[in-house]
Amino acid sequence: MHPKLHTGLKMKSLPVVVIAAILAVSIVDAFIENSFEQIMGCKQYNSGAKYHGAVKYFSTASMRHVGSTGRSKFFKFAIFGPSDGLVRYGKTVYPYDSDGIEIVLGGWKNTKSAGRRQRRTATHQNVNTLLAEAPTPYLMSQYGPIMFVLEVFDDGQVKVRRYGQSTPFLSFNDTNRTPVDYMAFAKGDQDLIFFYDCPLGNPNRVDALK
Fold first, then answer.
1. 90, 103 in Cβ contact below 8 A?
2. What are phi and psi of 109, to 5 degrees?
3. CB 141 within 8 A of CB 32
4. Chain segment 99-154, per-residue pLDDT in tens
5. How far apart are CA 135 and CA 142, in angstroms?
6. Which of 6, 21, 54, 107 has its Cβ near the most Cβ atoms within 10 Å?
7. Which residues sit opposite 157 in a β-bridge?
């Protein structure tokens, strides 16, 4: 190809690339702006501890926004980060040498999620028993917080769904019927920000969170 002709083609294609880049940035900016609106009124927790580190447990009795249907409790929370969001809950503020529940959201490089029973020692050794897992590709996002609803039933059922969706993407049965008296948030290798104790549309109707 003639050098001048080749240069001319490059100059003509440049505006198209620039326009595409501007559109991409605009779309991302709009997504971030919209996704952050949903965390208004939530509390924020920046998880510093990695998987085997010590995490802070919050008493759900001190939370302002805990829903109850009479046969279940439900919680609305969001995670901002690329993968491996961890939610743990149990009946004590220091759940060591006793069973608790751990929910992994966007684990395994943001490809699947899981629910498991966990027994953890004071030295942070743990044994996990898988209760359920489900493929959830691209569940989490590094561009904005993703909102979830966790519902724990008195009979041991546990359901997790995206806020705004009626069908859970993860559900399992906890035969221990572990109560959600204390809740913690942790991470894998990626830095995450958690938003919890988020306002509920109707604290007595989980179906209102759609």
1. no
2. 60, 40
3. no
4. 999 999 999 999 999 999 999 888 878 899 999 999 999 999 999 999 999 999 99
5. 19
6. 107
7. 173
